[in-house]
Here is the input.
Amino acid sequence: MKKRFLALALSMSMALLACSGQKAATETSGAGANAAGTNAESSVAEDKATEEVKAEGSADFDALVAEAKGQTVNFYGWGGDDRLNQWLDGYYAEYLKKNYDITLNRVPMGIEDILAQLSAEKEAGAKESDIDMIWINGENFKTAKESDFLYGPFTQNLPNFNNLVSQEDSETNKDFAYPIEGFEAPYGKAQMVFYGDKTKGDFPKNTEELLAYAKEHPGQITYPALPDFTGSAFVRNVIYDIVGVEPFQTVKEDKEAVRELVKPAMDYLKELNPYLWKEGKTYPEKEPTMRNMVADGELIMGMTYSAYLVSNSIADGSFSNNMQTFIWDKGTIGNTNYIAISKNAKHNAAAQVAINAMLSEDVQLNRYETLKTIPVLDNSKLSKEVQDAFAKVDLGEGVLEQSVLLEKRLPEMPAGLVPIIEEIWQEEVAGK
Here is the structure.
């Protein structure tokens, strides 16, 4: 691992030197033939060194592929999305078997239980874990990393991560503003969107209009009870719309400081309560419950982190084609979900190879076509043929184009603020 890390560092240094050399050559193009020759020789030497590092990195990954052959990799994560489960057990499992002779074993388990199992294994001094790959992000990643449950850094070992993922994207480097440092790789992008029945009038574009909309349709709007992931994200969107984004990138993880900062938003949510379903005395426990209430006509509006939920639900008959996706004028929160590897993963090599496969053009394109999940690849790094294939994907009815979403994508709050805000909501808003 140390050898791979040094190779990555050398590669980055050479790339920086090459960029510096190109800038100098441009700025001093009239300096004379001797300077040009020196620069050319230096560039050739740097290119050769870079190629040697790339070759060594390739050899390292080839060794992982050889080691992974014939292994079964256990992928632990939330199992509540039937369409995703079918895709993982079908296309992705078949891709791993065909290309790498790796067998995928998907283990549906909530992240709290996964972290509890990793904690128990650590306490017992276990040298191996059945947990290989973990679907994770946000505060759970922060907890796992700080608890020394995860293996890494490993992303520098993955050719597709290095060649197809933007290294400058903030979400490549930070998860809910928490440094990733190579301990997880991006899996798919998510973004909060709202959806509603377009026959019920204009959709609200901000919190002020949402309150007016709720008054026009009393009892027909709600959101999932925190700490449900979607309900929590809705509250953070309300906070951003009322308080702003910037204060939360620097505020201390102190409950009273956060309470004071979010007070205008908590006051708003209390004002909203009487016009919600059940007058805000209770809330749907989970996002799927709220979604079913919309499908049954009990509610006229919902929210989700699945940007293309509406098109999928219209296609399978869950929603009528009156349903339409919308976002607020100031934007909505987006984040990335990731795959990590447990520190003592029994099938570490297979996990790394499987994650690299998840970041391949073929797999990301098929996810986009089948699941309508916002891809994590950098479009500018893809071949023209693959760019065209992504552009041709039919997103279906009632959704917003990816470009519209990304243009109004707001950053997540630091992971440590999320549970604090959820506690404050429970104390000051729930049932009030």
